[in-house]
Amino acid sequence: MNKGQLRKWIFLLMLIGQAVVAQGTFEFNKKFINCEEKWVVLPISKDSSYVYGFVYIDTQAGLAIDIKGSFKMDAQDKLVSIKENTTSRIVHRLEPNTMQVAIFPEDKFAALQITKTPEWLAVYKTDENTVQRFFRKGFVYNAWNECVLGLSFLEKAQKLNPAYKGLATELAFSYNCAGRYSDAIKILEQSLQENPADAYTHKELIYAQTKSGQIDKAIVSCQRSLKVCKDQTYAAENSFQVLHAYFTNKDHSNFDKWLASNDELFNKDKRFLPIIEQMKNQVKN
Prior knowledge:
By secondary structure, the chain is of the alpha+beta class. It is 49% helix and 13% strand. The chain has two domains: 3-125, no CATH class; 131-284, Alpha Horseshoe (Serine Threonine Protein Phosphatase 5, Tetratricopeptide repeat).
């Protein structure tokens, strides 16, 4: 295991082993995604120290934290630095998670000799106000289920270049997440005219159709997807959306028919079988 891998595992173990509650001076009530371009404090560790770092978005890697060091609070509630990374940066890519962190208060910056904005951040902001930057930020916020914020960046990208690769489906994801199904359907149908065999576009369209009550259209979309898409990654998921719509509407007859006609898909991709069993039991009652 090299030094980079070791640091990664230490960091992950540290996250897992820490409590996520309010602790003294700091209020742990923010997700990493809500702390972009801010200094944050991680919950107290077993040795009563706090790790701190700066959260930012790397256009290539996504959301990341630059770990600066650690500190403790003394008996007078004063901050005492115990470790600082001065020779090299320790950066960790952040995958979506529910961990709660605290925003480091500006009135304590001097105690750690940090500034509001690190000098190195300028390297990651050379593409500000570009379609690439807006798209990537929207993508990252969507991945963390912050779809309203994601949409705000994606709409800026759309104004600059509505034909930007991947933008249509990412916008549709935001619309679906926000319950704006008609907007999602409109942009997805347009996207399928240009790329009729894109499996992900079909998936988002079927989701929007079922959630907006257009089950018959969703069935047609499922059938078309099975016919034209080489990538069948979402085949079972698409069929499940229709099944769930029947379940939600308490349409027991069509629920049973659809389940029987798609049994092969569900058995091929078994992710949905436990949920389907629960639905079947509830349908009977």
